């Protein structure tokens, strides 16, 4: 998941809206005990966005990667809670 170099840019700046969104997602996860996933595609063109979205011709699928990360986190938390 996300291990190799990509052909599209990655978010390289920080902004107050991003920090606030992260804080809200963290709060929801802490309050509910449910992992929360979030993906932002940072693309310069529609072609890059489509490539990152995981069509059959693409080597990337950011949504799928985020889904697996949330499921893996949920499984780890379940193991930690129930042994």
TrEMBL record:
Signal peptide: none annotated. Keywords: Riboflavin biosynthesis, Transferase. GO terms for cellular component: riboflavin synthase complex. The keyword Transferase applies. One of its GO terms (molecular function) is transferase activity. Residues 1-22 are annotated as: Disordered. GO terms for biological process: riboflavin biosynthetic process. Belongs to the DMRL synthase family. This is 6,7-dimethyl-8-ribityllumazine synthase. It comes from Candidatus Protofrankia californiensis.
């Amino acid at each position: 998941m996300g291990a190799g170099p990509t052909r599209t840019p990655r978010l390289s700046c920080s902004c107050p809206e991003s920090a606030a969104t992260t804080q809200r997602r963290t709060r929801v996860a802490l309050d509910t005990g449910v992992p929360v996933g979030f993906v932002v595609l940072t693309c310069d063109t529609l072609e890059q966005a489509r490539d990152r979205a995981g069509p059959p011709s693409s080597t990337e699928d950011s949504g799928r990667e985020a889904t697996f990360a949330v499921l893996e986190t949920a499984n780890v938390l379940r193991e930690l809670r129930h042994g």
